[in-house]
Amino acid sequence: MTHTTRYFLLAALLLAMPTAYAGESGAAVKADELKTEPFRDAKTVGKLTSGDKVEILKKDGGWFQVKSTRGNGWVRMLSIRRGEARKTSTGSEITGLAGLASGRAGTGRVVATTGIRGLNEEELKAAKFNEAELKRAESSLTSRAEAKKFAAKGKLTARKLDYLPDPEQGEQP
Prior knowledge:
Structural class: alpha+beta
CATH superfamily of the largest domain: SH3 Domains
Number of helices: 5
Radius of gyration: 21 Å
CATH topology of the largest domain: SH3 type barrels
CATH class of the largest domain: Mainly Beta
Order of helices and strands: HEEEEEEEHHHH
Strand content: 15-25%
Strand order of the largest sheet: 6-5-4-1-7
Largest sheet: 5 strands, antiparallel
């Protein structure tokens, strides 16, 4: 494969990426606001209610641009379930939320985490080490004393939490 062909394929791939979600259907899993831009403080142009069907037009970070009967706009990605809407009982929704809150989800022994960047499996597999970004992230580090001072200023208090039960033992520590 020639260099020109490689560059052409790379350019085509990059141009196709923003439309990867275009036309995908979904449904609101909770009520949320439709925004003019993918920012929390952007102007609200409408509201979705739980169960509203949407068409996903675009993704930007932790936001989806959607089209719905209630209007078009940007909504937080965690408020939308991609794919066909499924009827669920309130009990199963609460169980699922409790699982996420505890750090455990599903029936297996897998600990689930939720990210806001919206990286999919392929993007995670393709990730490369970036020393400059690591140094940028490390520049945000703070000392324990500075963190305590910041928390006190915001009137935050420390809370002790129990460890999750050992899956092998099936009981509390």
